[in-house]
Write a structure and sequence with these properties.
The protein has 301 residues and is an all-alpha fold. α3 packs across α7 and α3 packs antiparallel against α9. The protein is globular, with a radius of gyration of 28 Å. The N and C termini lie far apart (60 Å).
Length: 301
């Protein structure tokens, strides 16, 4: 018998010149065109203009807002107007700023914790009546806040909490939107195989939530916490009703700048800019982590 020699295996030369290799063709439409950039530029200008207008009026004097021939370059009175806002005895700027920081921080932390916990239960735990209970929670978002103002005020008046920060913190400790937001996110971000693996390893339900659910929920929790903080910071309606002038939040305190017969809008808008600075600082420090968390969650998903 004659031995059969195998056919020679072709050798691929890895040192072929670049022109001999096939280059991947760029996908048409992968780069945004000028329409996208023009739209984003218009949105950016529309978003920045209110801040620039506040700076323009807040850096002038009382006659700037009524001057038809005003200059579009900010003046040099901003620090003077800001000092007038801070030094106004009726405003109580520093106590109001501290109250806003405390109340907004506690509300944001509480909403993130309870919403993540409830969202984990609705998304990954099977219990009787769960879908109907989630439907009820979502349905509460259709109830206007104004309908509960009178009962809430009577309740906190009987408890003796009117004029205290607890009256604005306690009703906002949970959020129906936060529960729905975290439920939808965790339902898609956490596969059931991870939960089954944790249970096989002997982890309890709460430990599974801490080790599996919390790390996966960080991007959505960061978004929810940021938006909740901004919403609580800008809340005016309920704090204006239940708090007094001796213990206000910052929006309530700044509203006192317009309580006089003559309103100096340069001082009012200087106060508005002062109240915006903490939010801008928060976005600067939390923006990078927020975007990285969102991108990490998008890649994992």
């Amino acid at each position: 018998m004659t031995a059969v020699t195998p056919a020679p295996v072709p050798v691929i030369d890895r040192d072929l010149p670049e022109r001999g290799r096939r280059r991947p063709r760029p996908v048409r439409g992968s780069r945004p065109g000028w329409i996208v950039y023009a739209t984003l530029g218009a949105v950016l200008l529309a978003s920045v203009f209110p801040f620039y207008w506040s700076l323009l009026i807040g850096s002038g004097d009382a006659s700037t807002i009524r001057d038809a021939n005003r200059s579009w370059i900010p003046g040099g009175n901003f620090f003077t107007n800001a000092a007038a806002v801070i030094g106004d005895q009726a405003v109580n700027f520093w106590p109001a700023l501290l109250n806003s920081i405390i109340s907004s921080g506690l509300i944001a932390a509480s909403v993130v914790f309870f919403s993540t916990l409830a969202g984990w239960a609705f998304a990954k735990l099977k219990f009787r009546g769960g879908p109907w209970l989630l439907l009820f929670v979502v349905g509460t978002m259709a109830v206007p806040m104004q309908l509960g103002v009178v009962p809430l005020y009577i309740l906190f008046s009987e408890l003796g909490w009117t004029g205290q920060l607890g009256a604005i913190i306690i009703p906002a400790l949970t959020s129906a939107f936060g529960v729905f937001w975290m439920t939808q996110y965790l339902r898609q971000a956490v596969p059931d195989e991870l939960i089954e693996a944790a249970r096989v390893d002997g982890a309890s339900s709460f430990r599974t939530f801490l080790t599996v659910g919390v790390p996966a929920a960080r991007p959505a929790a960061a978004m929810l916490g940021l938006f909740t903080f901004v919403s609580a910071w800008n809340n005016f309606f309920w704090p204006f009703i239940v708090l007094d002038r001796q213990n206000p939040t910052l929006p309530v305190a700044l509203s006192l700048l317009q309580s006089n017969y003559f309103v100096d809008y340069s001082i009012v808008l200087a106060g508005v800019l002062l109240s915006t600075i903490p939010l801008l600082v928060l976005f600067v420090f939390a923006g990078k982590q927020l975007v990285s968390g969102i991108m990490q969650g998008a890649v994992k998903g």
